[in-house]
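Glycosyltransferase family 39 protein structure dump, as promised
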Amino acid sequence: MSAASSDSTTAFTAHPFRWFLALIALLFLYREWIVLSTPITLFYDEAYYLGWAQTPDWGYYSKPPMVGWLIALTTAVFGNAEWAVKLASPLLYSAAAIIIYRTAERFSDDKVLATKAALFSGSIFLLMPLVGFNSLFITTDAPLIFFWCLCFYAFLRAKESNNGLWWLLAGVAGGLGLLSKYTFIILPTTFLLYAALSPAGRQLLLNPRFWMTCLLAISFLLPNLYWNYQHDFISFQHTAEISHQSSSSLSFSRLLEFWAGQLFVFGPVFLIYIAIRGLKRHPRSDIERLLWSLFWPTFAVLSVQAFMARANVNWAGPAYIGASLLAGYYLSQLKGYRILLIGLLANLLLSIAFYHYAAVTNALGIERKWGTDPYKRLLGWPEFVHQFQPWFDQHPDYKLASDSRKLLAYFGYYITPQDFKGVALSDDSYIEDHYELQYPLSKSTQTQFLFVSEHDVAAKLTHYFTDVTLLTEQTLPLYSNFSRTARLYKVSGFKGIKQETEE
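structure tokens r here:
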């Protein structure tokens, strides 16, 4: 080995964390470049959450407040550009990767093994397809996963030292996690399962500081619970409804579909590897028991959800914090790097194929259609909304209104001037979104509206307004098999909402 080669190897082994930070920075810049250059415009949930961010509160229609707070913070600093709306997501995933690195460092007293576990676990998490995909969009998953990682790391340090500051950090992180997504409530089952598997876990449950930490975390949710009390517990109603528990039947095919989807959430190589490793032997060390306890509860709960009703593949995301740590821990004990490199390469290629989907399909001569393009739901919205801009310019005193959450979110963001408080028209008293909760037509002080709809609603609008005029119908072709179409009406003379009664 040459002197130069020896020096570079020494530099890498002497400062592994610096190299890991360089990887994080490189992926962060690459993902931001994708957002800006593609460009990755707002998904309508992002535009919807941006509306929440205009009035920070302790709760919103369907989620706890953290995602709205984060968007309020990033847009207050950088403005309402699309990349600024999304910015908290790649930042939080990058920070979560650092926490995973620091967590895995504590798995062994052997410095070499600990460093390998840290590098492997952090890299597996950072290149996970779910993280690659979610880094382009701001969703509740970003703060959920970040605070899950932080809470677990603080718990691990508290378990080792019983230091009050680590218990405090675990409680604060747990509380902020609960304010990020209600799924965070699954995390404590990690410690219950750990107690069932390990004597050290059973000692944990005898520690009063553990229970004080749990109470501290729950206390963070109290303002959100009070907000829900003021709004008839609307968030919990929505959470129950999206699971479709009462209207669905048991389905093995849905469960298998969910499991197959997990191959593209965590990555096929690493998921198959830890599954085989887990089936081949029972956890032998205490750290293995703890990490499997971190993985199984979320994965099991969401599998049951998929079997009984419906579960999106990304809902199991927190389980792959434990899976990343498990894979890194097991791979650090192998002599070779083949599985690690193949797994990382496979995950990187999945992300690249998604990031550069248009370029890849163009190169292969594949026509993109509505049923095959992963960007189909966000494609073309800026151009589509701008087609309506002349009519909004002609009627500056008219308020944006619609019968669609999606249209209110997109028009609210892309129309000039922006209007994040569009008025919602609902045919009944059932509240289906945040606009209907906060800005229903029945409570609006406005009298004149520009009403946008994807349907011909002229006849319906005459029930609510004395004057209804169709201003324009605009269409934007996106694929050979799909075009966006909407109609814009000028309406005034609101008659009020009349509740229909049964005869």
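Residues 305 and 311 are 6 Å apart (CA to CA).
lmk if u need the other ones
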